[in-house]
Amino acid sequence: MSERKEFGFGYESTAEEVIAGVDLTGRRAIVTGGASGIGLETARVLAAAGAEVTIPVRDPAAGERAVELISASTGAKVRPAPLDLADQASVRAFVAGWTGPLHILVDNAGVMACPLTRTPEGWELQFATNHLGHFTLTTGLHPALAEAGSARVVVVSSLGHVRGNVDFDDLHFNRRAYDPFIAYGQSKTANILFAAEADRRWAADGIRVNSLMPGSIATALQRHVDEETLQRLRNAMNAPYRRKTIAQGAATQVLLAASPLVEGIGGEYFEDCAVAEPHLPGMFGGIADYARDPAAAARLWEVSQALVAR
């Protein structure tokens, strides 16, 4: 088992605590899914620390509400912008509209365990949104990240990745029976592999990329899952389980986005503000061995490039 790297924070740490005293004035950030849940808290804390924050949103009304909430609690201004991660044209339009350097990109938005839904391309929605949408967004913003000179990309994954490896022979459930949690797990494994490969490719450009599990937090992400189903899944894991508050859930991604403590670190998967250990049976956490496979990470990059190519 690899040595667990820790940075003085843990399970109960909050987003505000992990960057207390950090000044982000002059730094520009994007937080997808920043209109609610841990995305909203991430955007709020980064803005309060002085960052110029953009919140890409699918629902303009939700974006305006988030702007008002952040302004009311911090006095900081954030900018909403239209983005639908399941729509590649929308993602490309957002990228085309971005100008200037980008110092922080938090790929936070996602969908979880939804009924089988396909995009116009025929892609399964969770893979299309959680991975392919962020793949196009992040790779499209590479020039802006490189221009920043020192940039960070934070990709929000989940413990749910232990339920599904990437099935390269049937990414979109055209042949295998659709299981919403296996599909979610596949998309979250893809998040980890993508972060590792992006860091390998981009570290020389001054861009460091990490992924993370935020923890179990009650947010709108679980809108397709009833509490009975969630409890059954927890029982099946046979592992200690605790919920986090939204402030605690946002801590790890804020640490990765802005703390000087993790400067120079890339290609890692974090949980509870620390580099995660390998996942073992009976463990609520950790990273599955298949999510650490560099060959799979490189293959996923090539497959994703081919899928999103116009």
Write up this protein.
The chain is 40% helix and 12% strand. It has an eight-stranded mixed beta sheet with strand order 3-2-1-4-5-6-7-8, sandwiched between helices. It has a single domain, classed as 3-Layer(aba) Sandwich (Rossmann fold), CATH 3.40.50. By secondary structure, the protein is an alpha/beta fold. Helix 7 links the parallel strand 5 and strand 6. It is built from eleven helices and eight strands. Helix 2 crosses helix 3, helix 5 packs parallel to helix 7 and helix 7 crosses helix 11. The mean pLDDT is 92. The N and C termini lie far apart (43 Å).
The general outline is globular
- The N- and C-terminal alpha carbons lie at a distance of 43 Å
| Structural class by secondary-structure content | alpha/beta
Query: Which CATH class is shown?
Result: Alpha Beta
Strand line-up in the sheet with most strands? 3-2-1-4-5-6-7-8
Biggest sheet details = 8 strands, mixed
Per DSSP E runs of 2 or more residues, the count of β-strands stands at: 8
As for the CATH topology, it is Rossmann fold
CATH architecture level-2 label: 3-Layer(aba) Sandwich
Mean pLDDT score, rounded? 92
Give the topology.
Elements: H1 15-18, E1 28-31, H2 37-48, E2 52-57, H3 60-74, E3 78-82, H4 88-97, E4 104-107, H5 125-140, H6 142-148, E5 151-156, H7 180-202, E6 207-213, H8 227-237, H9 246-249, H10 251-258, E7 269-271, E8 274-275, H11 294-308
Parallel strand pairs: 1-2, 1-4, 2-3, 4-5, 5-6, 6-7
Antiparallel strand pairs: 7-8
Write a concise synopsis of the structure shown.
The chain is built from 11 helices and 8 strands.
